[in-house]
Amino acid sequence: MPDTLFLFDHPQSVAAWGAIDDRVMGGVSRSALRFDPAGHAVFGGVVSPDNNGGFASVRAPVSDAPNGAIDALQITVRGDGRRYKLNLRIDGGFDGINYQAAFDTMAGEWQVLRLPIDAFRASFRGRPVPDAPALRGARIRQVGLMIADRQFGPFELAIREIGTVGG
User: Fold this and answer.
1) What is the pTM of this model?
2) Is 21 strand, coil or helix?
3) For residue 142, what is the enclosing H or E element?
4) Which bin fits 35, alpha (ψ -120 to 50), beta or left (φ > 0)?
């Protein structure tokens, strides 16, 4: 049974989530995480290549992160057929090492996806960080969602829950 980090079942559940799009480096992509009255969140927006852009992301601090080993993260999503990334950070900073695992979605279908902790790769501003601290056993401080990899145009990913699966 997963330990819930985020349950998007009421309007306040998206309040702490903020967008960090390619606008931080001059791009024009836009995204947001909003609450849908059907009882889930929606990560949506538009990814644009203009001004050397090409990514959109949202993230939030984890208020009650589990301590100790984590085997996997579990996310319940309804996608649009695109590939997304689940991002984890073990610090509270704005910029720094980001651990990412990609997942594919099936258009219009709810999926429960389990991403093994070993699938998360450390990166800094999109470049690999081979000597990054180990993620296993680390305290997760921030969680985010991202779309990148030249997937331009509008996107929409519905999310019901994000949780951890213990070790």
Assistant:
1) 0.93
2) coil
3) strand 142-147
4) beta
Structure tokens at 19: 């967008």
CA separation for the pair 135, 89 (Å, rounded): 9
* Cβ 137 vs Cβ 69: under 8 Å: yes
**On the CB side of 110, how many CA atoms lie within 13 Å of its CA?**
7
CA distance 104 to 102: 7
Q: Which positions ≥6 away from 61 have C-beta within 8 Å?
A: 16, 92, 141, 142
Query: Taking a C-beta distance cutoff of 8 angstroms, is the pair 19, 58 a contact?
Result: yes
Each residue of 139-166: b (16+ CB within 10 Å) or e?
ebebbbbbbbeeeeeebebbbbbbbbbe
pLDDT tens per residue across span 117-142: 999 999 998 889 999 988 876 788 99
DSSP symbol at 81 = S
